[in-house]
């Protein structure tokens, strides 16, 4: 079982860290064509756009037990925090599984200032250089105005399908933290602001399909180191 080691930090950072740990483990094994990982991703994809509690088959895979077992110098999380954390991890893992399907490189890529991989930057990369594609921009805006988390993840699912088609990477640990933040009062406004900043952080010389790099996590902008990509792929 994964154990999260950290100094006291916002729950959002813990959610991002746990998501990163789960995805990097599966991602490396999936790219190595390990049967159990391939099967796990197929199961996770079926939960995309649905609430965590609606898919009992994924309870084992979306395991947030490390958040129940924090170090003794850290306070225990409340039931509300744990419930929101589970929904956030579930949303990020299932969207990543959809994104990773039949791709031979890792679609989870930690964010760096010099190579942003937040949601806004990823959508911007789908657009022609120097131009704004209004239908794409409106997809991001529509996601940002979702009335609840279930609707949000369903709208994000549509965006992820486009990212997968173009093999544009995304930081799913960062996204998990944002899905957690979204569920709190005022959280949607915070996340929308972050997506807008990410959209404008994109630079034309930044190609997400180039060799991945690693980053270190913080509570909002970055994630933690990821495993290197391999070239093995699976078409499941």
TrEMBL record:
InterPro entries, A to Z: CRISPR-assoc_prot_Cse2 (IPR013382), Cse2_sf (IPR038287)
Disordered: region residues: 200-236
Residue spans of biased composition, Acidic residues class: 219-228
Domain of life: Bacteria
CDD domains (UniProt xref): Cse2_I-E (cd09731)
Composition bias, Basic and acidic residues: 200-210
Name of the featured protein: Type I-E CRISPR-associated protein Cse2/CasB
Gene: casB
Source organism per UniProt: Streptomyces lateritius
NCBIfam families the record matches: casB_cse2 (TIGR02548)
